[in-house]
Write a structure and sequence with these properties.
Structural class: alpha+beta
Distance between the termini: 13 Å
Number of strands: 11
Number of domains: 1
Helix content: 40-55%
CATH topology: Creatine Kinase, Chain A, domain 2
Radius of gyration: 20 Å
Shape: globular
CATH class: Alpha Beta
Number of helices: 14
Strand content: 5-15%
């Protein structure tokens, strides 16, 4: 997302999504380091209807799609689906499958680090922690007027971040085995300094002092880096929420966008009424809530961040929807969001779907993931002129 494209028409209205994907060999299902070749094909597409920007990630087995900035969730969904289609068809030209999963169920050979000075610094600093760090997330950006507002909004979001994770869990497998967790990605991420819920900050200046201090301590490569699940974006006028695993379908990415935008709009209303966020949960309860979400998803017990006790995770998801319902009503998204969340509660999370698919073998799981990632997973990549045709809206939903 370009900074100049995120003009805030109305605080808490503009939204964009960054989705990270894995590339798997079409024959073996193992991750394949073909990102550069796939992205070269994307750049040569005769039409790119999604409006997305495509990037490399730390390792050569991953690619990222950053959506155009939207104000309408239906248009966002069309654009997300089109970006996945574009990447999936280009992956097929390299005998690869595009897979949306928080971790790699079948890792391949040790993947190379992508080119770039910052990637090299990350690899040097974190060594073995990132050598095979094939994890993918779904990041949501929501426009806010300034950094002080962004930090105040993140304070309000803190109690709900574990629930956003629980709704999105989609990484039960690693190295060909069931980890027992719904989000192994989150457990992998916990190895980095400062991972988990962000601290409560009184101002943007206090936030920036802390990120600068972490850089000075040598545990992050620069002050723009953190592993918190939500933060003011270091380069956009947005709040960036990074709690979710890479989700299986465009609909589930829209669900994350809807819930996150609802949380931001609710926080803005609270701030306008003069209500600052409470400091709860404390560090220990917050860490417990994140762990429980990663362990169980929506299938077991979660940790209520305010009551500080175990409650069914599905109850927390319902409480989250109730919390943001007035904000969703304002934007006309309550019915859509209730339907999407209800589908996850009824049919299961991505982790639940993965375990059902894996009953037929791990190779079958990869094919199932590819089909859920893009409807073009099995298409012949020969004819690419019409990619995304009829999927991405042409109305001016992009923020000016």
């Amino acid at each position: 997302m370009r900074a100049e494209a995120v003009g805030v028409q109305e605080p808490g209205l503009t939204v964009g999504v960054e989705e990270e994907f894995l590339l798997a060999d079409a024959a073996t299902g193992e991750t394949a380091a073909r990102a550069d070749a796939v992205l070269a094909h994307v750049r040569n597409l005769p039409q790119r209807r999604s409006g997305a920007q495509f990037h490399t990630e730390l390792l050569g087995t991953q690619v990222e799609a950053a959506s155009a900035v939207c104000t309408d969730l239906a248009a966002l969904g069309r654009r997300l689906a089109a970006a996945r289609d574009e990447l999936a068809v280009c992956a097929r030209r390299e005998d690869a499958l595009l897979v949306s999963s928080g971790t790699a169920p079948l890792p391949g050979p040790l993947p190379p680090t992508s080119e770039g000075e910052r990637f090299a610094r990350i690899q040097d600093l974190y060594a073995g922690v990132v050598r095979d760090y094939e994890v993918s997330g779904c990041h949501v950006h929501v426009g806010v007027p300034d950094r002080d507002t962004a930090v105040a909004v993140v304070n309000h979001l803190r109690p709900w971040l574990p629930t956003l994770l629980a709704v999105s869990v989609n990484s039960p497998y690693a190295r060909g085995a069931d980890t027992g967790y719904a989000s192994w990605r989150m457990i992998q991420q916990a190895r980095f300094p400062g991972a988990g819920l962000p601290p409560w900050f009184p101002s943007a200046a206090a936030h920036d002092r802390e990120t600068a201090r972490l850089a000075e301590c040598g545990v992050v490569v620069d002050a723009a880096m953190s592993f918190w699940l939500a933060r003011p974006s270091p380069h956009l006028p947005t709040v960036e929420v990074r709690a979710a695993d890479a989700v299986p379908t465009p609909d589930e990415a829209v669900l994350q966008a809807a819930l996150t935008r609802g949380l931001v709009r609710t926080a803005l209303a609270e701030l306008a009424a003069g209500r600052t966020a409470p400091h709860a949960p404390d560090a220990q309860v917050g860490a417990a809530a994140v762990w429980a979400a990663a362990r169980h998803g929506l299938s077991g017990q979660g940790v209520h961040p305010v009551l500080e006790r175990r409650v069914p995770a599905a109850q927390l998801a319902s409480e989250l929807l109730d919390h943001v319902a007035p904000a969703l009503e304002e934007t006309g998204d309550l019915g859509r969001t209730r339907t999407l969340l209800g589908r996850v509660l009824h049919e299961g999370t991505g982790a639940d779907h993965q375990r059902r698919a894996a009953a037929g073998g791990m190779r079958g799981l990869i094919d199932a993931l590819a089909r859920r990632t893009s409807r073009r997973a099995d298409r012949d990549p020969g004819g690419m002129d019409g990619i995304g045709a009829g999927t991405a809206g042409s109305a001016p939903e992009t923020a000016r």
